[in-house]
Give the backbone structure.
Amino acid sequence: MAKAIDFVKQDDNSRKWLNEFRTKPFATPVRLETIEASRYSALLFPDSPGALHDLSSNSELANIIQHFIHEQNFLSLFLEPICAIGSGVGALCSVKDQHKWGFSNYSMTGPSVYELAQTSGFGDIPIILEDFIKDNDATFSATLPNSVHIVVDRHLITGQNEASTLTAVQNLILLVNARQGKNLN
């Protein structure tokens, strides 16, 4: 069984919310290999420090994301959206084979080298997103550190950092709603 989420820096309001959250079925993490990608309308990878270490080369995650990329080939409009924010953009790196990255020719953002260099674990980061994106034939853009910056390209929404979370998730919700409201028959 997967490890329960550990929340830090709790005040009374967040503690109340967390206690209620823990009663929900989605509060318990599941193993990636048990997930059926076809059951989901969207993917969301939030900013998390461990994403660059754990998700960037995870083959099970690559299979899930591949499902969303594969859908693109058949449904050119209103694709299943993928949203990745900050270090969560590292999850997209898992979709790379010997020849091509699954997000080549996309435009996106993620933490800039400058932002990553400001973190305490910079020397241990296995992948620098800005370099990976550029080296794999995608377009990278960033703005000032800790500023809101998102990029929407087809069904992919990326946010530069934690400050971009609200705007990125709002765009994800808009894309999901647009897709569900569209009659594809």
